[in-house]
Amino acid sequence: MLIGDSLIFPLITTKAFFFYILVDILLVCYLLHIKSTPKYPKYSTSLFFYLGLHLFWLFADLVGGINFFHSFWGNYERMVGLFNNIHLIVFLWILLSEFTDLKDFRKLLWASVCVSFFVCVYGILQKLGVVFPGILAVSDIRMQSTIGNAAFLACFNLIHLFYCVYLFRDTRKLWQKILLVSLFLLNVVVLYYTGTRGAFVALGVSVLVMICFVLWGAKSKKMKPYLSIFLVAGVLATSLLFVYKDSSFVSSSVMFSRLTSINLSNPAKNSRLLLWRMAYNAAKERPLLGYGTNNMRIPLDKNHDYRLTEHWFDSSHNIFFDELLAHGYIGLVLFCLLFVLIFWEIFKLKSKDFFVSTVLLGLFVAYVVQGFFIFDSFIISVFFVLSFGVLIAATQKNTRMCSTKTLPPYLVYVICIVLMLVLPIIYVRSITPAKDIITAYRLVEKDLEQAVKIINKVDNQILYGYDIIAPAMAETALVLFAKPEKHDQQDLQDFSDALVTIYKKAITETGDYSKFYVNLAKLYQRMHPVLGGGMMEESFVLLEQAHAYSPNRIDAYYAKAQGYYNIGETEMAVEILQESLTFGVQQHKIYLKLADIFVRKGSVTDFLDSIHVVAEIKPGDLSDQKLEEYARILVGREKWVGALEVFLMLSKQRSNDIDTYYNIALVYKKLDEKEKAQEWAQKIIDLNPYKADDMHSFILSL
Fold first, then answer.
1. Are 525 and 563 within 8 A, CB to CB?
2. Rounded to two decimals, what is the model's pTM?
3. What DSSP string runs through 236-263?
4. Residue 586 in 3-state DSSP?
5. pLDDT (tens digit, 9 = 90+) per residue, 93-136?
6. What span, in angstroms and rounded, lies between the C-alpha atoms of 493 and 486?
7. How far apart are CA 299 and CA 509, in angstroms?
């Protein structure tokens, strides 16, 4: 439920830092406790395999990764990395050490499902547009709640559906059963409104697997006929959704319309398939140990498929391809073996507790299927560890694997002192910059000089996260340099210097990531008219580097064309845009940019050809405001033929608009086509008789 409002990416960072600090406190308490009373987790093959997998990740990131620093710390947007994994391991270790049996875990799951109530209610209030302090307004039609991302919220709901089912059996009180049923239905409703196809598919597959598991393994035969009917009904209902996908019922539903839009027959139209292909191609260059955790954006950038409408990725949106990129084929095999081991443990649990094994089977199947469509996040990884702990506790006997020897007290005290000295420094250098950059952002319009001082403080103090701080500052720069006259020239120069420094460190921190080259180049172009100083030349150098690192980046072509246009070399700008047409993608955007250039050059024929292409491919890009802008330019240059064509296009979008009709009549008058001018004047009279006198005067003037 923690969201905060004073940190960058508050929906993620607030939760993560709270979790880290809480785990650190628990670790110190745990160490002080076991110095006299040894308590170690129950023995489990899957537990020690999980710990071993993390050790391999540490080795792979250190030896095979391209940037261990980035792999260890991660960034503010995702809050995943080895530092996060260490805390997850400690959390799991303490859970299994202190929770003696499933009864203890049930208390924790009860707390979790109760929290899910508040998360769901928060999301519903957002959906209804309720505004009061603490409710973050979102424009996305898909529900996000306090999680901040519809896909992750859906995974959160999915996990809690299984928690509710798991708790239901051993709950004796009627009011608790009613509460669990209500929480189950509430999570289903919110899951639906997230509109997350992967979660819906995961739920369907997990239910299917659970039913088949029960039909195969259950000793009782009473439920089998009912489950068979339910299975057939589910398959039939899903089939009908796809058969009637064009119906108003399906098309009006966010979830069902997104679900039925899945296209596997044409990979070129499926962004996920294109992205997975990028990941597979990128993995070929480092097949054994991969690129390291949090270093996926570089290989994906280099192998970017220009057919994707979304341009920038730091993940393949698939936990298995992410593992392949991060730790190579060795890591992928070990990762898959973990789930093989998990399902084997669940299968063994069947004879001990068939109900629990069925629920856990459904939960982990849902997690795996969902993982084919999204990447792991901080929130989901915490609940994976909790669910993993439940599985380990359920599959073990009451015996523990304990040492008879206690830890030497001096060793415990040394470890605790080191932790208490080092961890505060880490958090000060992590949390303070995340807070200060938001403070600076809020001060920019009021006190730019003070904002720059805070930014320089962030630069001097920050431990990691330049790749997040730099884009945040770039957004601020766009606001500043849109109206530079509001600020002192020296303050703007100081801000520019700080921004460039931060961006260059972001490039160093993440590697040769073309996005930062392109964005910094765009900022140079935006700042050049105000500050000068060879920024345009620097911009072109950066764009050449971006092109070298990622040849398929349409964005680099756009930015280069814009740069040449800004310095008056329009022919070069046109040449670059026409070169980008050879990619065969985003044609409407390219032609729209060409139209912007041609209309300002006064090349009416080329301009009209360009906007006709846009109108044919994606007419929605030619908004009323855009057409009005073109018309003003053409009228100002007395290009009457072009102006007439634009006004006619505008009249089709604004039917019966008197002002547009009058402009058409005026242009016909300029072209000396009196009959046409009179015809449009008459249309105005027909629409509004009160304009008759004015239009008659206009007609007499022809």
1. yes
2. 0.82
3. HHHHHHHHTTTSHHHHT-HHHHHHTT--
4. coil
5. 888 888 877 888 898 999 999 999 998 988 888 777 776 555 55
6. 14
7. 15
